[in-house]
């Protein structure tokens, strides 16, 4: 059963996100999969029998609300967090495009999600969950509050029109290597239609790099043009040398651990237990709850 405390927590995050949403209350409700009357009840503090437990959980997960043990996780200004944030700011304010292709587990996704949580007109897309062009376009449309029903062409055209009217929209495509070929081609079309009025930022690892390089090598339509639009280079943050990499991972882990400011925490011991991997750092902290 979803407790009243958890409902209040989810509702609080809903209102925080609403402050960063440019559309109307009705559009924001659509982005959450709600009708406007239900959203208004929640906004006014009425949680009694408004939604099913399953719907509360769905919205909570979409908003990245901690549904389990409540761990106050503090953001550390790591090298990755600062670099990704700076790149996202540049893409958003200049309607620019960029690709970050780097090692897994360094905090790319966390930085992107935090940016989307704290900046206006930004949509974060986990492409591993929306791999086809239909899923991708409809998801982005829904996130901007335009809905995802109706014909595909209407959804696409409405999205293009809306993006051209918004102030500095940004779309973050995480796990972009999971997109299928038609979705990549549709991205090229979307980027053409929103040129100089929308920023785009792809995030991935070796799979994304291989997909784009392989597509260019095999002369598949669209890949060369996409790569060119994204600056014809793969951004990278992790250094190449073995010793430099070890130092990099250690500094990242130490910064994240110290940022939590927990009492009686042995930083070096936690670094060893987590092997300086940020996902492991989070798991080790969960064990302390």
Number of helices: 14
How does CATH name the architecture of the largest domain? 3-Layer(aba) Sandwich
Rg from C-alpha positions?
Answer: 20 Å
Which secondary-structure class do the elements indicate? Answer: alpha/beta
Number of domains: 3
Biggest sheet architecture: 4 strands, parallel
Class of the largest domain in CATH? Answer: Alpha Beta
Termini separation: 22 Å
Element string (H = helix, E = strand): HHHHHEHEHHEHEHHHHH
* Annotated CATH homologous superfamily of the largest domain: P-loop containing nucleotide triphosphate hydrolases
Please, what is the average pLDDT?
91
Here the CATH topology of the largest domain equals Rossmann fold
Estimate the strand proportion: 5-15%
The residue ranges in which pLDDT falls below 50 over 5 or more consecutive positions are none
Query: In one word, what is the shape?
Result: flat
Helix percent reads: 55-70%
Please give a handful of descriptors for the protein shown.
alpha/beta; Rossmann fold; 4 strands; 55% helix; four-stranded parallel beta sheet; 289 residues; 3 domains
Describe the structure.
This protein has 14 helices and four strands. It is α/β, with parallel strands linked by helices. The chain folds into three domains: 4-62, no CATH class; 79-229, P-loop containing nucleotide triphosphate hydrolases (Rossmann fold), CATH 3.40.50.300; 242-286, no CATH class. It has a four-stranded parallel beta sheet, with helices on both faces. Helix 2 crosses helix 3 (36-43), helix 7 packs across helix 8 (152-165) and helix 12 (242-259) packs across helix 13 (267-274). It is flat. It starts with a helix and ends with a helix.
């Amino acid at each position: 059963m979803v407790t009243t405390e958890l409902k209040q927590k989810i509702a609080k995050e809903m209102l925080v996100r609403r402050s960063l949403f440019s559309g109307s209350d009705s559009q924001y409700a659509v982005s959450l999969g709600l009708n406007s009357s239900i959203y208004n009840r929640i906004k006014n503090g009425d949680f009694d029998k408004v939604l099913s437990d399953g719907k509360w959980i769905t919205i909570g997960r979409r908003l990245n609300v901690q549904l389990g043990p409540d761990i106050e996780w503090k953001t550390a200004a790591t090298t990755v967090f600062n670099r990704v944030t700076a790149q996202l700011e540049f893409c958003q304010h200049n309607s620019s495009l960029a690709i970050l292709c780097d090692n897994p587990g360094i905090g790319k996704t966390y930085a992107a999600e935090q940016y989307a949580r704290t900046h206006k007109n930004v949509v974060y897309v986990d492409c591993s969950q929306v791999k086809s062009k239909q899923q991708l376009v409809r998801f982005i449309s829904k996130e901007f509050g335009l809905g995802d029903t109706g014909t595909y062409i209407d959804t696409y055209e409405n999205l293009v029109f809306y993006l051209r009217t918004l102030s500095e929209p940004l779309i973050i495509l995480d796990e972009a290597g999971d997109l299928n070929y038609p979705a990549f081609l549709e991205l090229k079309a979307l980027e053409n239609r929103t040129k100089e009025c929308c920023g785009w930022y792809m995030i991935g690892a070796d799979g994304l790099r291989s997909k784009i390089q392989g597509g260019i090598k095999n002369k598949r339509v669209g890949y060369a043009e996409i790569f060119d639009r994204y600056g014809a280079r793969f951004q990278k943050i992790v250094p190449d040398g073995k010793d430099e990499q070890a130092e990099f991972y250690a500094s990242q882990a130490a910064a994240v651990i110290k940022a939590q400011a927990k009492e009686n925490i042995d930083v070096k011991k936690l670094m060893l237990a987590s092997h300086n991997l940020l996902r492991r750092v989070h798991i080790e902290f969960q064990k302390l709850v």
